[in-house]
Amino acid sequence: MTAAPDALYLPCDGPVLAAVSFASAILAEFAGAALGFGPAILYEISWQLCAVAGISDGQIESAIWNIIVAEALCSFTQLILLRKHFRLRLFVLFNLPMVLMLPVGTQLLGRFGQQRWAKRALGVVLLTVAAVQAFSCLRAAGVQASNRRDLQARGDWRVAAAIAVAMGCSGLLRGFLGVAGPPVMVLLLFFHCDRSAWRCVGAASRVMMILLQGVLLGVEDYQPHCWRMYSLLAAGGLVGMGLGNLAAPHIDGAAFQQWLIILLVSGALLMLSDGNAQVSILSAVGVGVAAAASILMPAGKRAARLLRVRGQWREGLLPVEVQLARRSAQISASSGELQSDCLVPEESSSVS
C-alpha cells in the first residue's frame, strides 16, 4: 500500500483502525446480504470517512485490498451454499469479459490511483449508482416492466452482447476504482434472471474478482504486520453476512433503499470534495446522519409495529364488557369526526 507523502494516519496494526475496519465490514456485508447492495461501495465510503478522521490513508488501492480481504470468506461461503444453482453458461458469459478487463483496470489503478481526480471519478460513479437506485425505486413503485429479456435465454445474441458490455465495464471499474456494481445495476433494469441463479452467479463473479485481483495486488499490498486488521475484516464480513441473512425478511426494503440513496449521494460528495477539508467534514457528517437513519428508521418502524401488536394483545385480555364499551366509544367518536368533515365542504362552498 502506498500513500501520499504528507498523509498522517494511524498504523494498520493499531486497535483503532482494526476496530473501525471490523465495523465497516459488518455494515457493508449486512447491506449486501439483506438487500443485495454492493458491499464494496459502502466500504469505499467508510474508508474515505476514516481518511477524513485521520485514521486511514484514504487511498483507493488500500481500500480495494481491504475489500478483497473482507469479501473472501463471505464469497466462498455463499458460493458453496448456492452451488446447486450454478449455471455454467451464465458463469462463462459473466466472468470472461470481467476477467479480460479487470487487469486493465488494475493497471490504471497502479498508474493513476493516487491522483486526486481518481477519487473524484469514484464520486461520479457513486452519483451514478444513486441515480440508478432512485430510478429503480420509481420504477418499482409503478407498473413493472413485463418485456424485460431473460438473461438465461439461449440463442439471443442481444443478451450475450449486453452481458459482455456490462461485465467488461464492471471489471474495468472494479480494477480501477474497486466498485463493480454500477454496470450490473443498469443491466438489471432491462433484463431479469431467476433470483437463486442470479445470487449464485453473483457469488461466483465475486470469487473470480477476488482471486484475480488478489494475485495482482497481493504481491505489493499484503502487509504481514496488519494481520489483526485483516482478521477483523474477514470476521466482520462473516458477521455482517449472517446478520443480513437473518434480517432480510424483516427489513422494509423500500425505506432502506431510500436512505441508501441519501448515503450514496453523501458519499459521492465526500469523494468529490477530497482535498477540501471543510466540505469533506460536512460531507462526512451527512454520511453519518444518512447511515444512522438507514439503520434506525427501519428499526423504529419495527418497534412501533411490535408495540401495536402488544397493545392489541393486552386489550384482548380485558373483559368482554370493557372491550365492547371501548369499541362503541371509538365508533361514536369516529362517526362524529365524519359528520364534522362532511360539514366542512358545505361551509367553504357557501363562503366562496
From TrEMBL:
<keyword id="KW-0812">Transmembrane</keyword>
<feature type="transmembrane region" description="Helical">
    <location>
        <begin position="121"/>
        <end position="141"/>
    </location>
</feature>
<dbReference type="Pfam" id="PF01925">
    <property type="entry name" value="TauE"/>
</dbReference>
<feature type="transmembrane region" description="Helical">
    <location>
        <begin position="197"/>
        <end position="217"/>
    </location>
</feature>
<feature type="transmembrane region" description="Helical">
    <location>
        <begin position="16"/>
        <end position="42"/>
    </location>
</feature>
<feature type="transmembrane region" description="Helical">
    <location>
        <begin position="161"/>
        <end position="190"/>
    </location>
</feature>
<keyword id="KW-0813">Transport</keyword>
<feature type="transmembrane region" description="Helical">
    <location>
        <begin position="88"/>
        <end position="109"/>
    </location>
</feature>
<feature type="transmembrane region" description="Helical">
    <location>
        <begin position="229"/>
        <end position="248"/>
    </location>
</feature>
<dbReference type="InterPro" id="IPR052017">
    <property type="entry name" value="TSUP"/>
</dbReference>
<feature type="transmembrane region" description="Helical">
    <location>
        <begin position="279"/>
        <end position="300"/>
    </location>
</feature>
<dbReference type="GO" id="GO:0005886">
    <property type="term" value="C:plasma membrane"/>
</dbReference>
<protein>
    <submittedName>
        <fullName>Uncharacterized protein</fullName>
    </submittedName>
</protein>
<keyword id="KW-1133">Transmembrane helix</keyword>
<keyword id="KW-1003">Cell membrane</keyword>
<dbReference type="InterPro" id="IPR002781">
    <property type="entry name" value="TM_pro_TauE-like"/>
</dbReference>
<feature type="transmembrane region" description="Helical">
    <location>
        <begin position="255"/>
        <end position="273"/>
    </location>
</feature>
<keyword id="KW-0472">Membrane</keyword>
